[in-house]
Every structure is written in structure tokens, then in C-alpha cells.
Automatic annotation (TrEMBL):
One of its GO terms (biological process) is histidyl-tRNA aminoacylation. NCBIfam families: PRK12295.1-5. The keyword Translocase does not apply. GO terms for molecular function: glycosyltransferase activity; histidine-tRNA ligase activity. Keywords: Glycosyltransferase, Transferase. The keyword Amino-acid biosynthesis does not apply. The lineage of its organism: Bacteria, Pseudomonadati, Pseudomonadota, Alphaproteobacteria, Rhodobacterales. This is ATP phosphoribosyltransferase regulatory subunit. One of its GO terms (cellular component) is cytoplasm. Residues 11-171, 219-342 form the Class II Histidinyl-tRNA synthetase (HisRS)-like catalytic core domain. L-histidine binds at D65, F66, T67, R92, Q107, E111, R295, Y300, Y301. It holds the Pfam family tRNA-synt_His. InterPro entries: aa-tRNA-synth_II/BPL/LPL, HisRS-like_core, HisRS/HisZ.
């Protein structure tokens, strides 16, 4: 494993390449206000972040990544368009599956805030990172969370159902369970069936919600129960989409073969992105397109996503990134701008270079 000094030195080389591409260096604080991250991701973030308390600043987190503070800085003070780069440590808790992975490591990153052409910006970030890794035998995989979001929005079902599916894109197991329930493939739980049938204990409501809130919740459950089931062919097409994995150059035609509403505009954006990648010298036939790619990463990615991985499946990605337009809207206090970025782990890169 590369030493901290070796990782930092390799990161400095990458940082210089990002500066040469036109990025301004930015250095967010290591301690970040916990409230912002909790508002964005809920209490789930505590499972993967180090939380501490300050008597004046309140609850703080050791920086779990750079994207959120970079977006905050840009939305508060940045001009447009803008390109940023950074190098520094991030901190992530590891569960038993990641016992061999470090919880403190360096990231070097490149972020683009530009309204001109989102697809061209996607290609810029990907190609710049690909150029730094071209000497290693890595596998590059791309995807697009926006494709799945567009399909969900195009479903002929209740807005509440579409909202629930969209909320759980990043939780594949929960998403699958919702699909089964909305398509009538699993029975309604006995307690919910009794509630919908009108059976309710006469005891007072328990918990923080008052009776009006609970009655409104029951009304929503009844509306959901009365809604038509998603057709079996729609569910089959959705599952075919989620399972799609092919050379990126073939992805538009493979997607067209899946009969789902809402796909056409998303396919057009994918084709524009692939054309922009080709214009930057990327062989899209050698890229893997995975329609489910990015569904288990941080939830701020809402469009193009990518990773570069080594052959060893136990290693984390050497580089990763994606588009996070919605995050700028959330943190921009009424302003927003298309944004995309990516990071490289210089310590892991140094390790792989040592054995290449």
C-alpha cells in the first residue's frame, strides 16, 4: 500500500494536470457542518461518515467527499463557467465487507460548472481522467441515472408511486420490492390489509404524528391500493432496462428496443454524450454501458456516471464521477447550474503503477 507521502506526491502530479486543463484549485475545510449532509441524505450518512461535536460550531463531519463543499463554494462565490480542482483527504467508515479498505485516503478531483453543453462537459471530465489512467489496464464503465429517472416519470401510475420509485433508485432492493408491490406480484401485508379494510384500534395514536397526519397517510394508502397494477410487460421492460449491460456504442439501439415511455429524450442525450466522447478520442466501443451503474453510490448523481476499475474486485474504483445538477439546485438557494466532476484515488493509482 502506498505511503501517505507517496499518495500525496502522485496526487500533486494529477492536480497539476487538472490545473493545466484550466481548473482553479480549491481547498474545502476538512471539518464540514453535519447539518448540510444530514439534510441532503438523512441519517443514513452517519453509517459512513465520522461525526464529532464542537461546542461552538455544533455537530461536524470529517469530510466524506469534496463535491458538496465545492458546490457550496461555487454557488456562493463562483463565476460562470467554472472549473475547479482539489487534492486532500476524505474519511469514510468501512463495514465488514470493506474491512481491507482504508477509511482515510486522498482524492484528487476535477469539477466543471458550465451551462453551454452538459454532454460536452461530461465528455471533458471523462476524457481528462481517462488520459491520466491510460497507461493502466483498467475497465471503464459508464451509465446514466437520468435514463432510469425519465422512465419512472413516464410510467402510467400514481404520482406518489413514481415519487417512491424515484426516491429509491439508489436502493436497488427496496426499488425491486416496490416494483413487485405496484405490479401486484406480492400480497398486501396483513396489517396493511386490515387497516385498509377499516379495522383500527380504538387506542390513541402513538408517536409524534397527530390524528390528521395519520388519517392523511391512510387515505394515501387507500388510493395506492385502489390504483391499477403496473402491467406485467412494463415491469418486464423495466427489469430488462436495469439488466442492460453492453458496449457503450451499442447502447442507444439496445435502449430503443426496450418499449418504455420517456426513453427517447434520454437516448438523444446519451447519443450526444457518446458523440462528444468520440470527438475527444474515446473509443466508445471499448467502454461498457451499464444501465444500473451508479445506483449504490452517493445519491447526488442524477445523470451521467462513470468508474475506472482494476481487475481485482476487492479494490475500490481507481476513479469515479458523474453529473449532479440537482445538488446545485438544492444548495444554490434558488440558483442552479449544470455540473459534473470526477475523482481519482492517487494512493490506489500509485499501488497499481507499482505492480504494472
Amino acid at each position: 500500500m502506498a505511503s501517505k507521502s507517496a499518495a500525496r506526491a502522485r496526487g500533486a502530479q494529477l492536480l497539476e494536470a487538472f490545473r493545466a486543463a484550466g481548473a482553479a484549485e480549491i481547498q474545502p475545510d476538512i471539518l464540514q457542518p453535519a447539518g448540510t449532509l444530514l439534510d441532503l441524505y438523512g441519517e443514513d450518512i452517519r453509517a459512513r461518515a465520522y461525526v464529532t461535536a464542537d461546542p461552538i460550531r455544533g455537530e461536524q463531519m470529517l469530510r466524506p467527499d469534496f463535491t458538496v463543499p465545492v458546490v457550496q463554494e461555487h454557488m456562493a462565490n463562483g463565476a460562470e463557467p467554472a472549473r475547479y480542482c482539489y487534492l486532500g483527504e476524505v474519511f469514510r467508515k468501512q463495514d465488514h465487507r470493506g474491512a481491507q479498505r482504508v477509511s482515510e485516503y486522498n482524492q484528487v478531483g476535477y469539477e466543471v460548472f458550465d451551462r453551454t453543453s452538459p454532454e460536452a462537459a461530461d465528455a471533458e471530465v471523462f476524457a481528462l481522467i481517462a488520459a491520466q489512467l491510460a497507461h493502466l489496464p483498467l475497465t471503464a464503465t459508464i451509465g446514466d441515472i437520468g435514463i432510469l429517472s425519465a422512465v419512472i416519470e413516464g410510467l402510467d401510475t400514481l404520482p406518489a408511486r413514481k415519487s417512491a420509485l424515484a426516491r429509491h433508485i439508489w436502493r436497488p432492493q427496496r426499488f425491486h420490492k416496490l416494483l413487485l408491490r405496484y405490479s401486484g406480484q406480492v400480497p398486501v401485508p396483513a396489517a396493511r390489509a386490515a387497516l385498509l379494510a377499516g379495522a383500527r384500534a380504538e387506542a390513541p395514536w402513538i408517536g409524534l404524528r397527530d390524528s390528521a397526519e395519520m388519517e392523511a397517510r391512510i387515505a394515501r394508502l387507500k388510493a395506492d391500493a385502489a390504483a391499477p397494477a403496473l402491467p406485467a410487460e412494463t415491469v418486464a421492460a423495466l427489469e430488462a432496462l436495469l439488466d442492460l449491460r453492453c458496449p457503450a456504442a451499442e447502447a442507444p439501439e439496445r435502449l430503443r428496443a426496450i418499449a418504455l415511455a420517456g426513453l427517447a429524450p434520454a437516448i438523444a442525450r446519451l447519443e450526444a454524450r457518446l458523440a462528444a466522447l468520440v470527438a475527444r478520442g474515446i473509443d466508445t466501443g471499448a467502454l461498457i454501458f451499464d444501465a444500473s451503474h451508479g445506483r449504490t453510490t452517493m445519491e447526488y448523481y442524477d445523470g451521467f456516471v462513470f468508474t475506472f476499475t482494476a481487475a481485482d474486485p476487492d479494490l475500490p474504483p481507481v476513479a469515479s464521477g458523474g453529473r449532479y445538477d440537482a445538488l446545485t439546485r438544492v444548495l444554490g438557494q434558488g440558483r442552479e447550474i449544470p455540473a459534473v466532476g470526477g475523482v481519482i484515488r492517487p494512493g490506489l493509482l500509485a499501488d497499481l503503477e507499482g505492480v504494472a
